[in-house]
Amino acid sequence: MSFILFRNANVYAPSPLGLKDVLVSHGRISEIADTIVLEASFEVEIIDVEGHILCPGFVDTLTHVTGGGGEGGFATRTPEMNLSHAIAGGVTTVTGALGTDAVCRSHEELVAKVKGLKEEGLSAYFYTGNYHYPVKTLTGSVQKDIMLIDECIGIGEIAIADHRGSQLTWRELASVAAEARVGGMCAKKAGIVSVHVGPGDERLDRLFEVAEKSDIPLKQFYPTHINRSELLLEQGVKFNQLGGYIDFTASSTPDILASGEVKCAHALKQAIAAGADENRITFSTDGHASLPNFNSKGELVSLKVGAMTSMHAEFKDAVQIEQIKLETALKVVTQNPAKVLQLTSKGQIIKGADADILILNNNSLAIESVLAKGQWLMKQTIAVRKGTYE
Ligand code: ZN
Q: What's the CA-to-centroid distance between 163 and ligand 1, angstroms?
């Protein structure tokens, strides 16, 4: 049905709006009011969601939709993401990226997967490039990819401070960022540079160096895995205070946490307490990435796969364990990531936005329903759509 009316919803836009009726028509949010009165001739699906939170669908800025990594040999190449994984995690917008391996995984495959996910109902984008430099692209240039391919929104994850990266100089990094910046400007896109920050001691030094020695502003870079360690988190707060966005990775393993990673929800609490601007912090799933744990000698100790449900789990923990306000925790998984990617119709419950909507249990914050561009993906805890071969 083209029209859906949610009655008595406790709306978080992500800021709290109180009890409202929300009308969805033809894939968009068309009205938000205390009471919406319908004309008699109107054929509309009416859902009373009293006792439930209505909030934006989650926006994930890093998803290895075709799988990632494989640092333990070919048998450890992680599997691709399917629609059901995103639905279970309340993710309605994904941003695909390659990662460590751009030999056995290609941008052609990435674009095909992104287009397939769009056909299945999600909003999907991707970053050109991967960990390495010189940058691999589809058309031969970062700027061309961003300008001429609709779904290409920036470049990443380009790796710094990592034994798996290309050990870039500040000039190399600045020239990549300049290409992305110009591509973004000409195509009216984010042109963002997603930066994978590894466990190396350089941490964010290279980014500060670019901002200091070149004309590229700090906010062109969007570093992820900032909760990797206490020291990196500290530097991330500084980066944030200078105007940049920082991203915390929700997927983790007990092994990785034991080796010093700060749990995503706790990192949010810590960063805000240290004076970071909560409007420039995001969570991403790092879904379907490999999650390798290396020891101090750089040897692989264990390997797991990133989960699409991790962002929702960390959002919940942020509220229920870390006692962070619901609207703040919600912002880092909806409005903030949409802003980084400059997706103006995403991440908010406002008139005219895409109808990407989650219905959460008021108490447990469990995901009960998922609507993407006005189409049901999950209804009252039952997934009503599946990927083509699921
Ligand atoms: Zn990464």
A: 12
Provide CATH code, domain 3-56+346-383.
Answer: 2.30.40.10
According to DSSP, residue 346 is labeled S
Ordered mean pLDDT values, 10 residues apiece, the chain (390 residues)? 92 98 97 92 91 98 93 91 97 95 94 98 97 95 98 97 94 97 98 97 97 96 98 98 98 92 98 98 96 84 92 98 98 98 98 98 97 97 94
Q: Where in the chain is the domain with CATH 2.30.40.10?
A: 3-56+346-383
Find the 373 Cα to ligand 1 centroid distance in Å.
29
Count of residues in the chain = 390
What's the gap in Å between 386 CA and the centre of ligand 1? 28
Q: What are the residues facing 367 on neighbouring strands? A: 360
Within the chain, which residue ranges are assigned CATH 3.20.20.140? Answer: 58-340
- Which residues are found with C-beta within 5 Å of the ion, ligand 1? 157, 196
List the catalytic residue out of 21, 101, 286, 356.
286
pTM score > 0.70 for this model? yes
Note the maximum CA span of the chain: 71
Residue 317 bears catalytic tag: no
Q: How is domain 58-340 classified at the CATH fold level?
A: TIM Barrel (3.20.20)
Distance in angstroms (rounded) separating the CA atoms of residues 175 and 169: 10
Single out the residue of 275, 176, 164, 277 nearest to residue 221, CA to CA.
176
Ligand 1 centre distance from Cα of residue 188 (Å): 26
